[in-house]
Specification:
Elements: E1 14-15, H1 17-27, E2 34-37, E3 45-46, E4 50-51, E5 61-62, E6 66-69, H2 71-74, E7 83-91, E8 105-109, E9 121-124, E10 153-156, E11 166-167, E12 178-180, H3 188-196, E13 201-205, E14 209-215, E15 219-220, E16 231-232, H4 235-246, E17 249-256, H5 260-270, E18 276-280, H6 290-295, E19 307-313, E20 315-316, E21 320-326, E22 331-336, H7 340-359, E23 368-373, E24 379-380, E25 386-394, E26 397-400, H8 409-414, E27 417-421, E28 427-428, E29 433-438
Parallel strand pairs: 1-19, 7-8, 14-17, 14-18, 15-16, 18-22, 20-25, 23-26
Antiparallel strand pairs: 2-13, 3-13, 4-12, 5-11, 6-8, 6-9, 7-10, 19-21, 21-22, 23-29, 24-28, 25-26, 25-27, 27-29
Helix pairs in contact: 1-7, 4-7
Amino acid sequence: MSSAATRVTGQDHLWSVTEHLEDILTTVRPLEPIELQLLDAQGCVLVEDVTVPVSLPPFDNSSMDGYAVRVADVAGASEGFPAVLTVVGDVAAGQADLLHVGPGQAARIMTGAPLPPGAEAVVPVEWTDGGLGEGPVSGMRAHSAAPAGASGQVSVHRPAEARAHVRAMGSDVRAGDRALAAGSVLGPPQIALLAAIGRGTVRVRPRPRVVVMSTGSELVQPDEKLGSGQIYDSNSFALTAAARDAGAIAYRVGAVADDAETLRSTIEDQLVRADLMVTTGGVSVGAYDVVKEALSTVGDEDEAGGGVEFRKLAMQPGKPQGFGSIGPDHTPLLALPGNPVSSYVSFELFVRPAIRTLMGLEDVHRPTTRAVLRTDKALTSPAGRRQFLRGKYTDGEVTPVGGAGSHLIAALARADALIVVPEDDTSVEPGTEVEVVLLG
């Protein structure tokens, strides 16, 4: 599946960040569209334009609780000289049989109710005496408690212009308009619009299912007691949360011990629910780098050159990486380093764009900007290696967080940007403008 199979790179080839990312994005393909119920489609990407079958609102309706009136009948009305009108009944939201408002008449109307024939405007109830024969009121009494409010007379204390407090038919969208364009991500407002125009289902690319798995016999789950030489597993939690933040349905698998056969068996079991697999740890050059051991010889059924290739990238942190596809469905797999910060940086650079590509989004990358570097000393980077440092971005300036140590999880938690030091810059002076990847 990996296009890397067509390249003659050699085992010691040093991949650039761009080469590795291009290989991933030319391999991963958007998921096939499916028809989903509206709430199931939340977070998904539309694959076709949606047009409006019926105008919104579908009829002229009141935007206030008040009285539907004719403009001429309330012209010149004031508190000293109110317009006194005969109330011919109530118009409630959802009411089918509408009253007719004639000269000298008014209909008590509720927000969202259709404007009755003959009426030209709505006066809010606060502009009237509510039919009580006194001064202005602040609201209406419930119809069940005071049914007489739907009859009698009402004094209107202010004039109203034509169409005042009336939402016109089609003022939101008109029949035939494009409600949503293909490529739109369906959030709560988009789901609301689809429901409002009567769409119960929609054709989308589903959210990708991502399985996240950490490796290492030293890893212990949070809330468990640490033994000698053990640490808590943070990577699987960080990457699962990051995958969900990117738009995926993510599943976290408990840490797998450093045993190649156990890892192969666990991955095989997880393939049934994965559109993308992400592992962390075991990809370097150590004797116990189990991911590399387990997957270097794993083929990809019916796919020439398939399997997982392990590489060295010209970047820091995150030099060791693995990428390929496994299983009968050629499921993409990205193998990330085990260092927590290396793992997270690698996710942002490679896994997140892969997830967004599976979703069918056109723009799969985090936004970038230029910012002035604020630090008390120059940033240094090994020649020929692109470096990504954690930073705090504010108003066009970025400050490194936590120094250069790639193991500082606490520093990562305080960062909201990555500072990019290019391969050809071994030193970046304070006050220099740098590229910044915004993580927020």
